[in-house]
Amino acid sequence: MDLGCGPGNSTQVLAGRWPEAKIIGIDSSAEMLEKARKSGVRAEWQLADIRDWAPSSPVDLVFSNAVFQWLPDPDVQLPRLLSEVSPEGAFAFQVPSGEGRWVDAIRRVAEGARWRGSFPETALSLGMPDVSHYYDLLSPLSRRIDVWQTEYVHVFPAPETVVEWTSGSALRPILDRLTKKEERESFLSDYTAAIVEAYPARSDGKVLFPFLRRFAVAYR
Fold first, then answer.
1. Are residues 114 and 205 in the same domain?
2. Which regions in the chain score pLDDT beneath 70?
């Protein structure tokens, strides 16, 4: 099961790794699933909310890439999803850390005089727990658990690419509250200025964008 499969990018990797397996991609977005169906990936696609989803029988692998940071109750959902894994199976997931200068830039702009009070604290709660939290949460339910984190340094052509990259993820709860086009453009302009300051261009004009991700694989 690929939970939060989106357009099927990670599902394609799973299907390639286990060519004889039955692969099911699950997402709450009909638009994303339509793209997945057109991808040609060998999988079954299901429209469902992860919080309500349960397989008809235990599965060998529950996999999820960058989804649980969107759930309001991950500490409830993660043990539940692990319980859906068959004996000798695995539950593997990745979440972004929600740390870095880009997060500081979001908070600095959102909490500045111009935007103060415009967003609930939940929209600014971007951080995810340390890997030790996932170990403590899942190890009592696992025969073994591996946890680690990796910092990826992306090379972007300009600071504006950082803005574009984060607009589709961490900035979504903020931008969704700005219903007027001019408000969104104004906020993004302020955020872009903060990103330019936080990520100075290198000698070749490009920007280095470190991004930390946390991983866990729990084995039943």
1. yes
2. 122-123
Q: Hey, CA dihedral for 36, 40, 43, 45, is it positive or negative? A: positive
Q: What is the pLDDT of residue 122?
A: 67
Ordered DSSP codes for the chain: -EET-TTSHHHHHHHHH-TTS--EEEES-HHHHHHHHTTT-S-EEEE--GGG---SS-EEEEEEES-GGG-S-HHHHHHHHHHTEEEEEEEEEEEE---SHHHHHHHHHHTSTTTTTSS-HHHH------HHHHHHHHGGG-SEEEEEEEEEEEEESSHHHHHHHHHTTTTHHHHTT--SHHHHHHHHHHHHHHHHHHS---TTS-EEEEEEEEEEEEE-
Say if residue 206 is in the same domain as residue 118: yes
Model pTM greater than 0.85? yes
- Same structural domain for residues 81 and 174? no
